[in-house]
User: Fold these one by one.
Assistant:
Number 1:
Amino acid sequence: MIKDEWFTVQRIDEQTFAISEYGHWEKVHSFLLMGDEQAVLIDTGLGIDNIKRITNQLTDLPIAVITTHVHTDHIGSHGQFERIYVHEGDEDWLVNGIEGLPIDQIRKDIGRDISLPTPDTFDPDTYLPFQGEPTGLLKDGDLFELGNRRLKIYHTPGHSPGHIAVHDETNGYLFTGDLLYDTTPVYAFYPSTNPIDLVNSLQKISEIPNISKIFGSHNTLGLDPKLLEEVKTAVNYLRRNGLAKFGTGVHPFNGFSVKF
């Protein structure tokens, strides 16, 4: 297995790897999924270090980047790859910058609470998030054929307008981005978020069949699919009590929480 000063590489199976950044407070995961003919990288991390150094060691297949959403911690190394895909709802943020997020705040967040040495090329005072044109736009129901492996795109807005989840139909893995993870709250309290959309998206992923493992983009790597039953309970509770709106605070459930 690859040893690296910044990235932690964890094998999920012979053709699937998590590339994690545990030295940063956000504990971000990106995921490399390989087929017989091509590979997909789900997100490219913080951009504190170059994730392409890792993917180059894991595969020589052509790589397409699928963006779960356009926030700084998921697009950091986008500029290292030729093929980048994003949902049309987040296209403007990728091209022109993230709405409502000033560069001073981005630099403050990227540079705080770092517990591992960073490369000499990283300076939080001059850090700039990626901006650029995507290769193509994603929509709900799109399929990626990797060669004996098929991925399906689900549009899951709420955390951002163009947030997506990725279902590896071949292995049953569900990559949920920032829609579902454990330990810290799922965020839908920024002005650029939408609490009602987030609850609708939670319901949407809870109804996807044949899930063997859930992989969120933060915190614990690999969650039990039984969590989706709790998601259904949470959706009903939030709707019944009129809580899917800004200012209602943190709502804890068994295995995850949401902050509006």
Number 2:
Amino acid sequence: MKITAVKTFVVYVYRTNFIFVKLETDAGLSGVGEGTLEYKERALLGALEDLKDYLIGQDPRLIEKHTFMMYRESYWRTGPVLMSAISAVEMAMWDILGKSCQMPVHALLGGAVRDEIRMYANGWFAGAQTPEEFAAKARAAVVKGVRALKWDPFGAAYLTLDRRQFTQAMDCVAAVRQAVGNDVDLLIEGHGRFNVDTAVRIAAALAPYEPMFFEEPVPPDSLDALAQVHRRSPVPIAAGERIYSLSQFHDFLHRGCADFFQPDVSHCGGVLAVKKMAAMAEPCYLSMAPHNPSGPVANAACLQLAGCTANYAILEIMLTDVAWRRELTDERVEFNDGAIRIPHAPGLGVELNEAACAAHPFQPVCLRHYRGDLTDIRPQGGTACYFQGME
């Protein structure tokens, strides 16, 4: 079996652009992957174009070999652009291998350890501005069966928070906790933008609300700063979505940076890279809570990993998205009482609709949370959810 074509699809979805890759073969099998890299789409497309010369004519089932070669032959290696390109291609190769064996990817990676994975919702707060509005959105999500909610209450703040910003953020957290009670987990997003002192101050203020974790409290550039916050924080810390290689994760692990590690399958090298990181974390009793705010193909890969990874604790899910997300693939996620079912179709279990992808071409998107309007994550016409069991 040989790869005959490498196709790319860039799909505008308001908050970002999904980037899908499709590998076609001379055996009639194809595989899909995703490398969605917010705000660097054109750079990623260039990296994928560079990889085509190597990939055409290769057997896509030799996944370890090709991932190693694509990495080794690149002089500039561990940044997000190259690694996202490799991740998308690697994901598509797993999809082909699974289809060729008529087995889901999780069965090829050691077999299932669970039938479902607990989920936490992102995007549930669309349109909320005040603590009262966040509280109402939170109650609505819980009614649908959501049992864990993540959001960023910090507006446009960067590095520090003045007294007014700090009070507003904590009022928002308090309102949501009061609205949903103590049986729902709260996960607080920092988006990697506070200095050490401010992050520790936030963590201390969050403690009475018992969050499951405080995510990315400091910029990802300094593991030392992250480790400082972790040592001083009274609440669990989560981080790692901007870790792009096994060597970076080794440093993250041995510096004691967090309680939850959040690899992104679209950026860190793909399915096998996440599986290797999970194996490194397991003897340290570090839980995995993968970063997954992207599209349906990345979500499918995350579910395959959730099925076969023992220390995989919880999965991020975008509760709301653009109305046309359901048209882009045949994704049908099964949800029940705060958990997502692990699928058992061959490969990743999802197929692209190329015509639907082409109907929503690339548009540039700004990084909104630094402007303070993160709450406006979807346009008019957005859908409340796209899960079976949560319509």
Number 3:
Amino acid sequence: MTSQNRSLLQLSRRADALGTENAFVVLGEVNRLLREGNDIVSFCIGQPDFSTPLHVQDAAVEAVRGGKHGYTPSAGIDELRAAAAQSMGALRGLDITPDEVVVGAGAKPFIGYAVASLTDYGVGDEVIFPVPGFPIYESQIVANGAVPVSLPLSESRNFAFDPAQLAARIGPKTRLLILNTPHNPTGGLLSRSDLEAVAEVLRAHPHVWIYADEIYSKLVYDGEFSSIASLPDMRERTIISDGASKTYAMTGWRIGFVANKMLAPVFTRWITNTESCASQISQWAAVAALNGPQDDADRMKRRFHQRRDLIVRLLNELPGFQCAAPGGAFYAWPNVTKACAIVGARDSEQLRTRLLHEAGVAVLADAHFGPRVEADGQHIRFSYAASEAAIEDGIRRIDKFMRTARP
């Protein structure tokens, strides 16, 4: 092919607009440094460091030995749809039926499926999403040709948002509101009263759908988990999204599920068009996770709670760090505005880079999760899905850096 012909080859606007998840970008940088012989303590990736429970592993082996190797229905095997319906319904106080549930290769694909199903390309349809927030929200909104409308989460409100700001952002072009609780990256938890205020706003706008990203719903340490789908008038318009990854240490098994009666057939067609179906072996493993003993899941949750208390205490002892205790998930989101000033870092991203290369500690900066919230300062994210020893070692390194670093 000539250079002239190559110059005529172009990518689509959709491909050019597609973003990424910076946790994986930083992880690649960390892995490169490790291969080069550097000693790095990493807090950058959000996945449990525990092994998948043994009875779940055994179920997968049994599925392999039992010849369960082929395609399944695109919506998932009946056994998993029923197990997911029961699990999601019990936690939320809802009667969810298996026909409302669709199983996918992780919960993440449903973000894109929801945006693509509820907005049209290039006509100005709007999707409201939280900032800071999971970066795939904005990436999928833009790639699908919709208009991203950011909704700032405030540190002063324990990383919830002002319902008045939500009301001000809803218009005739608004198609979807994304809610995430417990929240990535802040660990914030929307209380029932928070959600009731949101529901009150939405009742005046019956055309707006809700994507309830509740993948951390079983990792709540303070108070109780609440879902907006449980509130009056909200169930029909809410897409409940959950999965096996975080609760059962099954990130690599790639099993997520959503529940919404109207959209279940649409999501099923999307899966037929894209992934065909989730891995049958992983689906049988997830059945065992949901229906089997919950001792391992409970134990992992207790360990995460202990780690949360440990990392929050240690972070608050660091010069220039101020960290509120997150209500759920496994992320700490300290304010490092003063820390940046102490070491002469212009912002949290420069602090993140210096911590990696000068202290051997990998974290993520707030810039990886959308534009900074005005007046909230600088933040970095720690995933405390790491051992207690790693937490203590990493904070010790940061402490030394903070006390010796120069601009």
Number 4:
Amino acid sequence: MRITIEDKSYYVGTGGKPFDSELPTVVFLHGTGMDHRAWALQTRWFAFHGYNVLAPDFPGHSLSEGKCPESIEDSAVWLEQMLDHLKVAAAHIVGHSQGFLSALEFAANSPKRVISLVGVGTAAAIPVNPALIKTAYESAFDAAKMMLQWGFGPNIHLGVSPTPGMQPLGQGLQIMGLNPIATDLEACAAYTGGAAATVKVSQLEPTIPTAMILAGKDKMTPIKSGYAAATTLNAKVVVIENAGHMLHIEAPREVLDALRGFITELT
């Protein structure tokens, strides 16, 4: 589905079903350098089981026009603009890695628009090695190779794929190598509001039901950081032991099971 906001065209995946504002809505936010395709299995299941699905390519990513948000705060503002445009009053918000930082910032500032909040392979802060940012400015493809090397667990590197005929490493390189990784990484590194946002969200009345789906072999966002955020948020925690940072791609069924068990109980 394509939408136009302030003369810019953006792509929003709907999981293979037409957008229907009458249905409960689940928003899926991708991480650094990625796009809506990272959520292929999860979005399709929700779309075909009574939910309205929105999986946007953030501005400047893949099929979306516009300038890539230079800060997490800017990406949260754009998220609100998207929901306003589609007349979605409130939604379940799911974010992977950087996408969760955007979701967290959005929840802290627009809590009435968040039915539930789910973080996948993430934390309240995502420090970034300056060498990776430098590489990303020099070559997005080289930075993507580094991130994919660190981002997946051992099975993917041995050629095991959760989807027969599809290779996450090759697909990830083609997507991330053409997206503004450097700007995304800078936004993550500069975001210092996560700790305050988690406290603010945890103190809301009524509370926002929250869950964290973490990976046992995450080399990019250590699981202890995810646990720390979960503790502050009083979040339900699910750990997928053998997956890495890209767990929603590497272990899509397990992530779907966790999302389905959490969100369907609230709807």
